[in-house]
Design brief:
By secondary structure, the chain is of the alpha/beta class. The protein has two domains: 120 residues, NAD(P)-binding Rossmann-like Domain (Rossmann fold); 224 residues, Dihydrodipicolinate Reductase, domain 2, CATH 3.30.360. Helices cover 35% and strands 27% of the residues. The protein is built from 14 helices and 18 strands. The longest helix has 19 residues. The radius of gyration is 20 Å and the shape is globular.
Length: 386
């Protein structure tokens, strides 16, 4: 089988490519990227006869579709703003696909994937993705589910790549309709920094305030749990404290609206300008602590008794004590590895359905979680009777 890694030269998708080389049985692994220099550098680093490189510009739709034809699976590591376009290309090329973000544009191509007998799984990295598996793992062990709270701490620089900068601007857009909670039968839109809650993350990350973020788990968990009596679903997140202080100040001063300003005769968005600055400034490229930490709470009942399941996630330290997990790679590997696992699940048939399928329905956590463990990404569970 053949896999095309769209955006494969990026820091996160590159980790997924490395995982494919180490663990998968694909006969061809194609790194596809507009950045030819970075793509060829990764190919040379991997030094594997199965790996090749194709330059691709997803803004050229017909050309991209032609490039993807003949591949079994497309692993899409491109940015949020490109996922509508890339998903259409994957669908029309007749491939199965999977991406990192899962913000909703993918589902309108459901019928095209079904027509070809293919599947596309939107949003399968760490959050969403691994978090979906953690929710389902707990929910499948309960007769009814009342509350789901998904929380994460993403400890990485605020602007180590253009896609990460874009994510920051997107998630804290004041008018974003996708920032919702599910409560008592309704999806309720909330503003940035809504519903603050202190979340205790595994060490070394500690306890931090977290706020509602626009993530697909809110809607996908609802679809999976709507027959189990679900009443409340909240998804929260945080970045390093310095990042959050900056984002909050930008929000309170109106910068997150990304209003146009005129500079030297050109109109630019103020957040676009700030993002470009942070991508070039040392403060945007480093942080004190690197890595990822998940915290998932599922409350429900089994056999007439109420239970709370708390699931957390850990990985090797970023301090250099474990090779391959140094510094930023402790973050990027956490995101990229689940994407690779999802691709391999599709390739070996451990996936359910055709069309655009939510992660909770596509994959079984009993398949996914052991694969994470092989890569030193551990899921821990504590169950208490209420």
């Amino acid at each position: 089988m053949k896999v095309f890694c769209l955006g494969g030269a990026g820091k996160i998708c590159g980790e997924a490519v490395r995982d494919l080389v180490e663990f998968s049985e694909f006969e061809r692994i194609t790194i596809g990227d507009y950045n030819e220099e970075a793509g060829r550098a990764l190919m040379e680093e991997l030094n594997d006869s199965r790996v090749d490189f194709r330059k691709v510009n997803v803004l050229e739709k017909d050309e991209t579709i032609d490039t993807l034809r003949g591949y079994d699976v497309v692993m899409d590591g491109t940015t949020i703003k490109l996922n509508d376009r890339t998903t259409e290309c994957i669908a029309r090329a007749g491939c199965s696909g999977i991406n990192l973000n899962g913000f909703g544009e993918e589902y309108k191509y459901d019928n095209i994937f079904k027509k070809h007998g293919k599947i596309h799984v939107p949003g399968f990295g760490m959050t969403p993705g691994t978090t979906d598996m953690m929710v389902r793992y707990a929910a499948d062990r309960l007769d009814t589910v009342e509350i789901v709270r998904v929380s994460h701490g993403a400890f990485r620089p605020i602007a180590f790549s253009p896609s990460i900068t874009e994510t920051t601007t997107y998630e804290y857009d004041p008018d974003l309709p996708g920032r919702v909670v599910f409560e008592d039968g309704k999806f309720i839109q909330v503003p940035p920094f809504a519903r603050e809650r202190e979340i205790e993350l595994p060490e070394p990350y500690g306890t931090h305030p977290q706020w509602i973020i626009p993530h697909s788990e809110t809607k996908t968990a609802y679809e999976y749990l709507k027959e189990k009596g679900i009443r409340l679903i909240e998804v929260r997140g945080t970045w390093p404290p310095a990042n959050m202080a900056l984002v909050r100040a930008l929000y309170e001063w109106g910068f997150m609206r990304n209003d146009k300003i005129r500079v030297n005769g050109a109109d630019i968005g103020i957040m676009d300008a700030i993002g470009k600055y942070l991508q070039q400034a040392p403060e945007g490229q480093s942080t004190n602590l690197y890595g990822y930490a998940l915290h998932v709470e599922v409350v429900g009942a089994r056999g007439g008794k109420a239970y709370r399941h708390i699931l957390t996630h850990t990985h090797p330290s970023s301090d250099g004590s474990v090779e391959g997990w140094e510094g930023l790679r402790a973050y990027t590997r956490c995101v990229g590895i689940p994407l690779s696992i999802g691709v391999q699940m599709i390739a070996c048939g451990k996936v359910h359905g055709t069309g655009a399928v939510m992660p909770e329905f596509a994959f079984d956590p009993d398949d996914v979680l052991p694969e994470l463990k092989k890569r030193m990404i551990w899921i821990h569970e504590v169950v208490e009777e209420l």
